[in-house]
Amino acid sequence: NQHEETPDFKSYFPNGVWLDYYTYETIKIDDKIKPINLYGGLNHTNVHIRGGSVVPIQDTRDASKVTKTWDLLSRQMRLLIVPDLSGYAQGNLVVVRGEKTDENHQYFTITHTSNTIKFVLEDGTVTDSEGSEINEVLEEIHIASTNSDIYNADFACAIGKDQSTKEMKVDKATHPIS
């Protein structure tokens, strides 16, 4: 029957760190390439993120209420940081309201090193067309690291354009990271 569960299968991964998006389990591949057993059920999509990546994510479980980019901007944003074996990750984020073609935007490069997350505004403006400041809020930053030292962190702060600092809350998750 074509609707029965698909059996587990093997997929080949190149060397590096890979994170299972749904379980946060990491796979470390030291060989040039290695076959990995994956679950093949019909209700599961295998999504793995390569180490060295910074991925912006939003909760879209109630996707029926999302009809344009503006709907997404009203939701909290999260970052998923998956460092490579050296502790480095980088990604980009574009923030735009999506209402017209010539509107203000923000284009960030986000870099993670062993003890720092840096946001650089590469292009765009921090104000919208009415002069109001665009202040996107990150709800959470998830760092899925194979380096256990990351769990020793007990302080985080944001540094503003004027060099002012704002302390941030540090919650330590207990994801199954190997």
Explain this structure.
- The model has no long low-confidence stretch (mean pLDDT 77).
- With 178 residues, the protein is mainly beta.
- The longest helix has 5 residues, at 69-73.
- The chain has one helix at 69-73; strands spanning 9-20, 26-38, 48-50, 53-57, 77-82, 89-96, 105-113, 116-124, 138-143, 156-159, 165-168.
- Helix content is 3%, strand content 44%.
- Strand 1 (9-20) and strand 2 form a beta hairpin.
- It folds into two domains: 1-49, Sandwich (Immunoglobulin-like); 51-168, Golgi alpha-mannosidase II (Immunoglobulin-like), CATH 2.60.40.1180.
Question: How do you describe this structure in short?
Answer:
This protein has 178 residues and is mainly beta. Helix content is 3%, strand content 44%.
Key descriptive features of the protein:
3-stranded antiparallel beta sheet, hydrolase, 11 strands, 1 helix, 3-stranded mixed beta sheet, Immunoglobulin-like, Glyco_hydro_31_C, mainly beta, 3% helix
Spatial strand sequence of the major β-sheet: 2-1-3
Structural class: mainly beta
Shape: globular
Radius of gyration: 19 Å
Contiguous runs where pLDDT drops below 50 for at least 5 residues: none
CATH homologous superfamily name of the largest domain? Golgi alpha-mannosidase II
Tell me how many strands there are.
11
Query: Number of DSSP helices?
Result: 1
Given this structure, which CATH class of the largest domain is correct? Mainly Beta
Mean pLDDT: 77
* Count of discrete structural domains: 2
> How far is the first residue's CA from the last residue's CA?
37 Å
Strand content: 35-45%
Series of H and E elements:
EEEEHEEEEEEE
Report on the biggest sheet.
Answer: 3 strands, antiparallel
**CATH fold-level assignment of the largest domain:** Immunoglobulin-like
Q: Which percent range fits the helix content?
A: under 10%
CATH architecture of the largest domain: Sandwich
